Amino acid sequence: MIIMTNQLNEAVRDSFNQSVSETFDVFDIETVIDYNEEDPSFIEHSLELDTSTGSTPEAVCTVTSIRCAAHCLQLAVKDACQEMEEFLGHCRKIVRNLRTPTVAMRLKQLKLQNAVIDTSIRWDSTANMLERLHKLKDFCTTNLVFEPETIWDSIEKYLNILEPCRILSKMLQMEQLSFGDFYIAWMKCRLQVEQIDDNFAQRLLCCLRSRQEMLFTNEYFLAATYLDPRVNATLSNAQQISARAVLVETYKRLTRLATPEPSTSGVDDDAPGTSAELDSCGQNINFGNYLREHFFSIRHTTTDEPHTSQSLEREINLKLIAFIQEPVLPSKTNVLEYWERKQFTDPYFYKLAKVILATPPTSVSVERLFSSLKFVLNNLRMSLSDSIIDDVLVVRNNHLFDEE
């Protein structure tokens, strides 16, 4: 997903650069060179280029990706388990002996659970393999080749060390999971692993810290943490500044969306105000003039705008600084309910929190949606069309239909 996001951003930038270069190729180069950047005719000419191609700077949008928290946990444990590959290989050998038809039949006769083999790319399956193997210790000691006691002690030790990560992995499967919920669960896991005096535990702790640092390099992760009174006190000064920059920019965007555009001077009162209205009225010819007049009206009538914009930005920053100085809430507080109570007392920050906290910290819900496909499309229903499959999945996984 991260690679795909980077490729999308590169494609957008390449498309924008190509459209601009193609537009300049249409005009005479010597004519363009004669323009002065401070000359109004040059500005008007630049606007014509942007209007004709639709490639204004505001039209160049990029996609920001956030690493899946569950995947970061997966990678952290996988990195830590690399040093125990030889031990895990020996455990897999024992499990394969337990899964032979003769031994499996013997387990069934004794009403014991069968051994399970792990998937190398999923550490939780490795933990399940070790747990099932440890339960079959007495059977292995009696019916298989003798294994030294150190093997079983090592299995028990690794299971105890991985237990906090297994608990965290289950918590990350929650549907209504916020960044603060994830961070609290992550820190609890770290503290439990830190209390274990073992080389593998210290290795796992280093891997968890390394992956956590990668998560905290994302400014939107920091912004979501900033708006959670349970954990925002853990942010450093540099992280707080980065988070406030994102929150201020998002706040300004929300303000622009909520504020209607001012009427344009020099345009008839009956002239349409949007491009959609222009298209519906059949006045596409005047659309370029409308944009130019709109741009120049803003450009000439907002000479003092930088001061106003800076004062607004300063006011938002002061509110955010005051917010982070509020008392820390208990870890069991529901941050979504906390912001719902602020819907009327602080409506703008409430809207800001709804946008920032809407970002899911994991892709578990999406993966669960894809996994549900196996219950819809099976060997007995292979003739379903794509549209029907889409409709069934929407109804099956959309909780709004349950209320109706």
From TrEMBL:
Q: Which Pfam families match?
A: Dimer_Tnp_hAT
Q: Which organism is it from?
A: Parnassius mnemosyne (clouded apollo)
**GO CC terms on record?**
nucleus
Which keywords has UniProt assigned to this entry?
A: Metal-binding, Nucleus, Zinc, Zinc-finger
Query: Which InterPro entries does the UniProt entry name for this protein?
Result: HATC_C_dom, RNaseH-like_sf, ZnF_BED_domain_contain
Location of this chain's protein in the cell:
Nucleus
Q: Does the keyword Lipid biosynthesis apply?
A: no
Starting at the broadest rank, the lineage of the source organism is: Eukaryota, Metazoa, Ecdysozoa, Arthropoda, Hexapoda
What GO molecular function annotations does the UniProt record carry, in alphabetical order? Answer: protein dimerization activity; zinc ion binding
HAT C-terminal dimerisation domain segment(s): 322-398
The protein here is known as HAT C-terminal dimerisation domain-containing protein
